[in-house]
Amino acid sequence: MNGGVDRREVILREAAGLFAKRGVAKTTVRDIADAVGILSGSLYHHFPSKDDLLTRIITSYLDDLLARYADVCTGTNDPLSRLHGLVTASLETMERHPHAAEIYQNEGAYMRRLADYGELRTAARKVQRTWIDTVNEGVAAGVLRDDIAPDVFYRLIRDAVWLSVRWYKPSASYPITRFAEDCTAVFLDGFKTDPRRRRR
Predict the structure, then answer these.
(1) 22 within 8 A of 32, measured Cβ to Cβ
(2) What's the CA gap between 39 and 95, in Å, rounded?
(3) What predicted TM-score, i.e. pTM, was given to this entire model?
């Protein structure tokens, strides 16, 4: 490793892995330093605290997610295409930040104690708003049903997509694009047999 930037990236990556595996509260600064191969005191030259590490991990993830969502929303006006795009963007962002989504799902109580929690909450609300606005547009266009609350649909599909980080690993035979298609199909078309659809 050469240079402060590279070392910081390694620290963030190792911290994210430990936070996802052990939980933030059970992970110590020494654990992170040991994983990186430095002394605990040296870690403080790069980050002031464990909480700062957590904030940077989640902020990087949410910023990337929102940037990808913005690209999706400007790329199509069709609500169904946009929903598929949001699923794909979520999966691709998780691939770039393999532990952040799991940390975000599991560490809500801990994150609420962070000094910068207000900024994280604002970003999270923008994520939610993007999904719910898309669903509302689909309902208004008559392509999505109006008897299920948009926030309920959002929570169901969000958890299905984001929690897949625990088991889904992209492969040549089942890439992210195919997984996004399947996930979207299950939520929009259901899982019942349709004679018009054939196994690919």
Answers:
(1) no
(2) 30
(3) 0.87
Fold (CATH) for 49-189: Tetracycline Repressor; domain 2 (1.10.357)
In angstroms, rounded to a whole number, what is the distance separating the alpha carbons of residues 196 and 155?
A: 29
Cβ-Cβ contacts under 8 Å for 94 (sequence gap 6 or more): 100, 101, 162, 164, 165
Question: 1-47, what's its fold?
Answer: Arc Repressor Mutant, subunit A (1.10.10)
Supply the DSSP symbol for 143: S
Eight-class DSSP state of 141: T
Name residue, tokens 């929903």: 83
Residue-level length of the chain: 200
pLDDT tens, position by position, 78-136: 999 999 999 999 999 999 998 998 899 899 999 999 999 999 999 999 999 999 999 99
Yes or no: say if 16 and 104 are a contact pair by the CB < 8 Å rule.
no
Domains in the chain: boundaries: 1-47, 49-189
Q: 100-136 burial string, b = 16+ CB within 10 Å, else e?
A: bbbbbebbeebbeebeebeebeebbeebeebbbebbe
Q: What is the pLDDT of residues 15-56, one digit of tens each?
A: 999 999 999 999 999 999 999 999 988 999 999 999 999 999
Rounded Cα distance between 100 and 59, Å, is: 9
Contact call for residues 140 and 129 (beta carbons, < 8 A):
no
